[in-house]
Structure formats: structure tokens, C-alpha cells
Amino acid sequence: MAQIPNLDNAALNLTALREQSQKELLSIIKSIRGKKCLVIDPKLAGTLSLILQTSVLKEYGTELRILSADPLQTECPKVVYLVRSQLNFMKFVANQIKNDESKGLQREYHLYFVPRRIVACEKILEEEKVHQKLTIGEYPLYLVPLDEDVLSLELDYSLQFAFGVIPNIRAKGVASTKAAELLNHMQLEDPMGIPEIDTVILLDREVDMVTPMCSQLTYEGLLDEMLEIHNGSVEVDASIMGAQQDGKKVKVPLNSSDKLYKEIRDLNLHVVVQVVRQKATSIQQDYAEVKSTNTQSVSELKDFVKRLHSLPEIARHVNLAQHLQSFAAKPAFHARVEIEQIILEAQTYETLFPPLNSMLLEFYSFRPII
């Protein structure tokens, strides 16, 4: 399953951004010859999976590890740390190097800060007496495309450096209006390049304080609510996806590269089940027709084979939708949605107290009650 999202239909040239990040990361890897261990901080691991397939790194003799407080377990003679500029990570790096030295291991160490190095981090490395043992550099990861219409900004001003200052700023809400005025003033003082983005719309959170508190009812919303989407994917038990591997976790990518997901992500769960069932039934009927007759033309057979390629996507979302339904069918979920509707419709609030009391007595999660 492809983890990296397809960006061909993006409104901006996000493919070029991703290719630049790929090029710079591979440049670091290629500059360190031979077998090496790439140690990544936990949050960056998910981010890098949206930029480059791990199989590409392995082609250059790279072994992957996640940075932790534990000693580093690897046989590689060269270690490359790729970490965000956080002080606690410097302690981890220093302790791992010291642990290697206590065992008499002679290794070559490299440290690349993301997106840039800071003095405070290097000061800690000096205090730990490992700074001289490290070759230090930067990996300027500023913008990460999560999908064709979603960007993660890893550094201030990186969007305008990439696409120019946005000329038209529209704002809704008091705080957004103040931010827009400040941005307009800054642009007059320091204009930059020809913009690729025409307009930005700023929405103040205070314009709508209620919506974020409500239960999400779309397919994508429920996936995030119940399984938590991180870096364009969810991690679930393999058994949920139909595999006979109890306890094993699998990552399921969720982005616009999956055409079926792109079609159903904003639909209500009940509608999703109907759409997926309809697609599966249609392919099943086509298969029965192909099997029972020999009258199909080559082009018709080609179309049928093309549709067969969507079967893994259909199976994936059948399993996920079925898992979500098991949660959505519970009385507690229905009660929560009903309470939210009563509040939103400004009905009599007296009817709210009995179900809320029941939730508290049943040790229901306190966060959704609030």
C-alpha cells in the first residue's frame, strides 16, 4: 500500500516541494558512504514516510531506528541522527554515544537538525562532551505535503518563501482581522516575489466554538475520532484488516492516492457502507458475467481487469467501515450524538441530565462529556 500521497491534482506545485525534500535527504545519505544506521526522532518518522519510501533508503545501505533513551542496537559502523532541535533529544544522542564508548565500539557519528540547528542544543552536546565526536549539519525540511490540499508548515514563513507573499487576505473574526492587518502591514514593508497563491482566508476559532466539540460523523472524521489519523495514516490491529496475525499492528494509508477513499472520506458512515457494498456487488456481477460468457471484447475485458485493481481498496474500506460500525452502533455513541443535537437545537436542557449522569456513573470518558 502506497504511503506517499499522490499530488498530481494539487492546486500548487507540491510535487516540486516534495522532490526537493527527497533530493536533500538522499544527498545526506549518499554523502555518508557504506552501511549506516539512520536514527530518527519519533515524530519525524511519520513525516518522512510522506516524503520518501523506506525501501529507497535501504537501497543505499541504510538501516532505520527510532531515537529513544535506550542504548542503540545496531552493527552499523556509521550512525546518522536525524532529529528536531529539541533539548531532550540531545541527551538521548549523548547517552547513546557514551554507551557505545563504554563498550569499546568505534563508530562514525553524524547529527542533522531538522529544520535547522540551534545553539542551545549544541551547548548540551558540548556539556556532555560528545560535540567533537559528531559531524553536524541541517536537513531543511520546511513544508511537508500531507495530501493534495493539506500542508504541514515546519518553519515560520516557509510558505511565502516557496510561493511568494499572498496579496489578498480575507478574515472572519476579531483575532483573524488583527492578524490580517498585521500581515498586510508586513507585506508593505517587505514585499517578496511574484505570488502563486491569490488569496488566503483566515477564520477565527471564536467564530465557531461549538463545531470542534461535536462528534465527527463523516467516514474520515470517525476514523480520526476512533483510530486517530497521524501523518495521513491509521495504525490498527492486523485482525481488523482481515489478517490472521493477532497483536500485530499495520499502517493503513489514508490520502487522495486512494481513489475510493477520496470519494467516500466526507460521506456519512451509513452512506459509505452502501457505496462500498454497491462497488463490491458490481465487480462481483461483472466477474460472474465474464465467467459465464465469452462475448466480451478486448476493451471490455481490459476495463474489467482495471476494475479488479480496486478490489484491495474496497476490501480495506469494508474492514475499516465494519470496525467503525461496531463503535457507532453502541448505545453510548447514540446517546452522545443525541445529547449534542439537543444542545445545538437549543431544546429543553432538562432532558440532558439523566443521560449525562448515566455516563458519569458508567465511568464514560470525561473528555467527551465536557
UniProtKB/TrEMBL annotation:
Family membership, please give it: Belongs to the STXBP/unc-18/SEC1 family.
Q: What is this protein called?
A: Uncharacterized protein
Biological process according to GO: vesicle-mediated transport
For this protein, the record's SUPFAM superfamilies field holds: Sec1/munc18-like (SM) proteins
